[in-house]
Amino acid sequence: MQRRTRSTRPSARSRAAARTASITATRRSFLRVIALAGTALAAGAAAPLAAPAPAKSKRAASGPPVTAAMRKEIDNQKGYVSRQLKVIRDFALPTGSEPAFVFRAMSPRRRGGK
Q: Taking the model in full, what pTM does it have?
């Protein structure tokens, strides 16, 4: 008769201990993040009081400067859009025509077997 060896699978007690340790570690890291966030908020709230805010420019400097050709194309496109909007707004619908859609509220789905 062969002798049985111990299983390599951890016992229920050691699995529970490992789970508790991971929860504790997670809780600790969560509390550490909360404490750091509170400290950062306090430091961030005090910073504007200590130093005056720099003057903001009227236009944010992002991207390359707009050239004359780009400005002309932007003006052309604005003109195209304004003409298209004028055509859409001037279109007269016939009296009594059907609407494009009708909103009908859906009844809520019931959960469970009913």
A: 0.33
